[in-house]
Specification:
The protein is built from 14 helices and 2 strands. The protein has about 350 residues and is mainly α.
Length: about 350
């Protein structure tokens, strides 16, 4: 029992020493604060014209310390107030929030002139081509986008070539931005391959006509599956699990768009179901999947989509019809050339 009693006494003595040290420190702090207060009081006192010592009032000191809005400086708002942006987001309905997230850059341009809506114009041209192709009344052996392209006049085909060229250019643009922002080497190469494959095969689909069956169908199949793989890969590569392991939680592509991927899968499933029927059902599924892929590529134009890039892509009617229109004209010339020399067809009429 003796060692235990000694240990208890030593612990009590240590606690007593600690308490005494704490009391001495507190006394020293009190003395120091009193000295500081006395010094401040002597400094604050001033001498007036009559030789009397005066002390500035506390009210005036508080007024001097308070920031004034008369000088044009920004005054911090009270904690209870909210900004106008928060009020606008809070006032959005469910439909408006859905449009803001899924329409993306087109919703951001809703207050701008219609000439600046390059993305909406591109999607409109994609819808215009099948409507005009069916309205011409031409009968084709294959009811599809490619089947009508061999028969329609060039002025009708130009509408779809502009949409295809714009989609390919947007896919390449988004792929290069995502590849540049990816720090992981393996994922950088995977992003480049996943993005460039559907862009190249989509261009090949409308460079080689359907009459050149082997190469044309190879491009079609590769585009359909590679586009689906690119959408899934982007979702996996920017998931929380992969981002936490490869990039310390940072995402390369930040996008809340999900409707284009969903509609693409629906259109892709329709084309698989009616692939051997040569019916209008396959035609509808093909239109849905093609426009959904364009929608998905154009959604990358929105500001803040890629890491390290806060600005949106400038894409107006000029970029669509002048820049991408030039690519479309070149693709159409190659398409008609292959149709004329490779299949014994015609150059097409205007």
């Amino acid at each position: 029992m003796r060692p235990t009693t000694m240990m208890v006494r030593e612990c009590a003595r240590a606690r007593g020493d600690d308490d005494a040290t704490t009391r001495r420190d507190a006394t020293r702090r009190d003395e120091g604060s009193m000295v500081t207060m006395s010094v401040d009081a002597s400094v604050d006192e001033s001498v007036d014209a009559g030789g009397r010592r005066t002390r500035p009032s506390a009210r005036r000191g508080n007024d001097d310390a308070r920031p004034s809005a008369r000088d044009g400086d920004d005054v911090e708002a009270p904690r209870g107030s909210t900004s106008a942006v928060d009020d606008d987001e809070r006032d959005l309905s469910v439909a408006e929030r859905l449009c803001a997230t899924q329409l993306g850059v087109s919703y951001d341009k809703r207050d701008r002139p219609w000439l600046e809506h390059g993305e909406a114009c591109l999607l409109a041209t994609g819808q215009l081509y099948p409507l005009c192709a069916v309205a011409t009344g031409m009968r084709t052996a294959n009811i599809s986008l490619c089947g009508y392209m061999e028969l329609v006049p060039n002025i009708v085909g130009a509408a779809y070539f502009v949409g295809v060229a714009g989609t390919v250019a947007s896919c390449v643009w988004g792929t290069l931005r995502a590849t540049r922002a990816e720090p992981h080497r393996a994922l950088k190469a995977a992003r480049f391959a996943a993005g460039m494959t559907p862009a190249v095969t989509l261009a090949g689909t409308f460079v080689f006509p359907r009459c050149m069956w082997n190469v044309h169908q190879t491009c079609v199949v590769w585009w359909a599956w590679s586009a689906l793989f690119a959408m899934v890969f982007e979702w996996v590569a920017d998931s929380k699990f992969v981002a936490r392991r490869a990039r310390c939680g940072e995402r390369v592509v930040t996008s809340d768009v999900v409707l284009p991927q969903l509609t693409y899968v629906i259109g892709f499933a329709i084309t698989l179901k009616f692939y051997y029927t040569n019916s209008s059902d396959f035609f509808r599924g093909e239109i849905l999947s093609a426009n959904s892929f364009s929608w998905w590529c154009l959604s990358k134009h929105r500001a803040g989509t890629f890491a390290g890039r806060s600005k949106a892509r400038t894409y107006t009617w000029r970029e669509l019809f002048l820049v991408d229109g030039l690519y479309a004209a070149l693709m159409m010339c190659v398409y008609r050339f292959n149709q004329y020399h490779g299949c014994g067809g015609t150059w097409g009429t205007f």
